[in-house]
Write a structure and sequence with these properties.
Largest sheet: 8 strands, parallel
Bound molecules: coenzyme A, magnesium ion
Number of helices: 11
CATH superfamily of the largest domain: Phosphoenolpyruvate-binding domains
CATH topology of the largest domain: TIM Barrel
Number of strands: 10
Distance between the termini: 14 Å
CATH architecture of the largest domain: Alpha-Beta Barrel
Order of helices and strands: EHEHEHEHEHEHHEHEHHEEH
Strand order of the largest sheet: 5-4-3-2-1-8-7-6
Strand content: 5-15%
Shape: globular
Helix content: 40-55%
Length: 294
Amino acid sequence: MTPRSWLFIPADSEKKLGKADDCGADAVILDLEDAVAPARKPIARDMLKEFLAARSGNRSPQLWVRINPLDTPMALKDLAAVVPARPDGIMLPKAEGPEDLIQLNNYLDALETAAGIDLGAVQLLPLVTETPGAALRLADYTDFSLPRLAGLTWGAEDLSSAVGATGNKDAEGNWHFTYQMARSQTLLAAHAAGVHAIDTLYADFRDSEGLALDSRQSRAEGFSGRLAIHPAQVAVINDSYLPSPEEVETARKIIAAFEAEPDVGTVGIDGKMYDIPHLKQARHTVELSEAYGA
Ligand code: COA
Ligand code: MG
């Protein structure tokens, strides 16, 4: 089951790393990129290696690593340091397009083989809207396929800085059009590639109510989860990306109705019509609620 909450933790902060095991997130993203100052990258790599090695085997939360961008010499150093400790996945920042994912996939194939890890065991989640060029090319992920690709996610902060913007939301807290477009295209590109769409972070980490509203809306639109920056956001996100009890009940009714009449393509329940796409959706809803014990 794909993670709902993905909590960023700066990899060079001993105190914050200490919160990882009990933070309640489905996944943590141990960050070697923007949250770590250039001078501290080597220390962060060492701390991360040790952190991952101490947590081998079945992990909860999943342990992901955000490496530095592929066009910097740091990326290979990051990968060489962490892949042998078998992170659950790698987050790639500033992905320019599918060719970056293919290049990273090749690096991972080589490093997994060298470390005696199953080929494809380390998953991949790229940030696909962090440069203007990348945001303009999202349709390139249509029909793109890579077994280790878990999803696509997007970021607004680097994009707004790249276009010289002074902000990315209006006074009511709604994304400006450029970011709405990037967000919607990420959603479509992810589903066109057959992977999960993961929504970006909610920057105001003290505003739980706003986060809950925004996250429920995000789930209704087709996102499977979202990035987080503060432990206080985790429980709100986990809850918001679960189907409600009413949704689960309806889903069970739909599944039961189709099971009762295996040869029909549509059923009516409580005065509403349901067809095969609804059945698929209903199965997904029940799977989700069972996977997370709701
Ligand atoms: N992971 C783990 N622990 C975290 C955390 C995180 N992302 N963010 C905060 N905490 C811890 C703090 O260390 C603090 O611990 P304490 O109670 O033992 O002192 C506690 O949670 C409460 O933190 P708080 O005082 O509310 O926030 P802060 O001012 O210490 O930190 C940020 C604010 C934004 C700097 C911090 O949340 C952070 O580092 N977030 C992640 C940033 C990041 O990785 N960005 C890259 C992706 S955009
Ligand atoms: Mg960034």
